[in-house]
Write a structure and sequence with these properties.
With 376 residues, the chain is mainly α. Helices cover 65% and strands 2% of the residues. The protein has helices spanning 2-6, 9-18, 33-52, 62-72, 76-104, 110-132, 137-148, 157-165, 172-203, 223-245, 275-283, 287-299, 319-339, 347-375, and strands at residues 22-24, 217-219.
C-alpha cells in the first residue's frame, strides 16, 4: 500500500511541487506573495460559493436579497465581508507580486510572466463583474459606464455593447450573465494559476541577487513551507481585523442605495484597486483614446519580457533603474488618488501628467539599465 501511494502520479506531483522542489536559498519575504495569492483565491472561491447559495440574479430582487440575508442567514454577513475585503487583499497581493517581478527581473521568464499577466486580466474582469451583483447605485452606474466604453470601438462597438447588456440598457439580462461569468472566472483563474506554477517549476525561481542559483538551492519543505505559513498568518491578521471591526471601510456608501437608472450619483468611481486605470482613462479627452490608454495600462506588462536585456537580472545593482522604479510606485499611488477625485481641474491635468510618467517608466527602464551596464 505504501509503494502504491508513494509512486502514484498525484502524490508525485504534490511531492515535486511542495516538498522536494529545489528553491534558491536566498529568496526573501517578497517571494511569499505567490502562496498568499493562492490562499486568497481559495478564500474567494469558498466564500463566493457560500454567498451564491443565497443570491438571486434579478434586478428586482438582488439588492434586497443581499440585505435580507444579513439577518436571515447565519454568518452571511461574515462571508460577505470576508469576500468583499478578500478581493481588496487579493489585489494588494497581486500588485505587490507584480512589483516584485518588475524590480527583480522575473519577467525574463516569458511564459511565467505572460500567464501571470493573463491571470491579472481575468481577476480584474471577475472583480468588476462581482462588484455589479449587489445592484447598488455604484454597482449599476459602474456597470453602465464601463460597458459603454466598448461603444468606442470602430464599426462593432455598438453591437458589442448591446451583446454585453443583453438588450438596449443595463438590465436583468446583464445582471444574469454577469453573475454567470463571475461564478466561472475564478475557476479559470485557478487553472491559469496551475499553468503559472508549471512554467515556474520548469524554469525555476529568480532570486534577489539576479544571478544563477543552480548550485545554492534547498528543498522547498520544510523551510519555505513554514515561511509561507508565517506569511499567511501575517496576511490574514489585518484581513480579519478589517472584517470584524470595520468591514465596509473600503466600500462606497452609495452602494447601500438600490440601483436607480433615473438618479445618477454625483461622482461615479470604481473600487480603489481600479482607480489608477480609471485616472488614465479620464486623462485622455478622446473616448477611443481613453479606452486604448486604459487597456495599455495593463497590457504594457506583456512588453516587459521583450525589453532590452541587462547583464544582471533585476534592478538591485542599477541605481538609475531603482530610482525609476520607486518613482513609478509613487506615480501609481498618485494615480489611485487622482482617480478618486472628480473630473475637474486640476485633477484632469494631474492625471494627464501622471499617466505620461506611468508609461514613460516602461519605455525608459530598459535603456537606462543598458547605459549603466556600459558604464560599469
Amino acid at each position: 500500500m505504501y509503494k502504491v501511494s508513494r509512486f502514484s502520479p498525484l502524490v508525485s506531483v504534490v511531492r515535486h511541487t511542495v516538498i522536494t522542489l529545489p528553491t534558491p536559498i536566498n529568496i526573501s519575504t517578497w517571494w511569499n506573495f505567490g502562496s498568499l495569492l493562492g490562499v486568497c483565491l481559495v478564500i474567494q472561491i469558498f466564500s463566493g460559493l457560500i454567498l451564491s447559495l443565497h443570491f438571486t440574479a434579478h434586478t428586482d430582487l438582488s439588492f434586497y436579497v443581499v440585505i435580507q440575508s444579513f439577518g436571515d442567514v447565519y454568518y452571511n454577513w461574515w462571508f460577505r465581508a470576508f469576500h468583499a475585503n478578500g478581493a481588496s487583499f487579493f489585489f494588494i497581493g497581486l500588485y505587490l507580486h507584480i512589483a516584485r517581478g518588475l524590480y527583480y527581473g522575473s519577467y525574463v521568464f516569458k511564459e511565467v510572466w505572460s500567464v501571470g499577466v493573463v491571470i491579472l486580466l481575468v481577476v480584474m474582469a471577475s472583480a468588476f463583474l462581482g462588484y455589479v451583483l449587489p445592484w447598488g447605485q455604484m454597482s449599476f452606474w459602474g456597470a453602465t459606464v464601463i460597458t459603454s466604453l466598448f461603444s468606442a470601438l470602430p464599426v462593432i462597438g455598438s453591437d458589442v455593447v448591446i451583446w454585453l447588456w443583453g438588450g438596449f440598457s443595463v438590465d436583468n439580462a446583464t445582471l444574469t450573465r454577469f453573475f454567470g461569468l463571475h461564478f466561472v472566472l475564478p475557476f479559470m483563474v485557478a487553472g491559469l494559476a496551475g499553468l503559472h506554477l508549471f512554467f515556474l517549476h520548469d524554469q525555476g525561481s529568480s532570486n534577489p541577487l539576479g544571478v544563477s542559483s543552480d548550485y545554492n538551492k534547498v528543498a522547498f519543505h520544510h523551510y519555505y513551507v513554514l515561511k509561507d505559513l508565517v506569511g499567511v498568518c501575517f496576511f490574514l491578521g489585518p484581513l480579519l481585523g478589517l472584517v470584524y471591526f470595520n468591514p465596509w471601510l473600503l466600500g462606497d456608501p452609495e452602494n447601500f442605495i438600490e440601483g436607480n437608472p433615473l438618479v445618477t450619483p454625483h461622482h461615479i468611481q470604481p473600487e480603489w484597486y481600479f482607480l489608477f486605470a480609471y485616472a488614465i482613462l479620464r486623462a485622455v479627452p478622446n473616448k477611443l483614446g481613453g479606452v486604448v490608454a486604459l487597456a495599455a495600462a495593463v497590457l504594457v506588462l506583456f512588453y516587459m519580457p521583450f525589453s532590452p536585456k541587462t547583464s544582471i537580472k533585476g534592478l538591485s545593482f542599477y541605481p538609475g533603474g531603482k530610482s525609476l522604479f520607486f518613482s513609478m510606485i509613487g506615480v501609481f499611488f498618485l494615480l489611485t488618488w487622482a482617480g478618486s477625485k472628480p473630473v475637474e481641474e486640476p485633477y484632469v491635468v494631474i492625471s494627464q501628467v501622471l499617466s505620461f510618467l506611468y508609461f514613460a517608466y516602461f519605455i525608459l527602464i530598459g535603456p537606462v539599465t543598458r547605459v549603466q551596464d556600459k558604464l560599469l
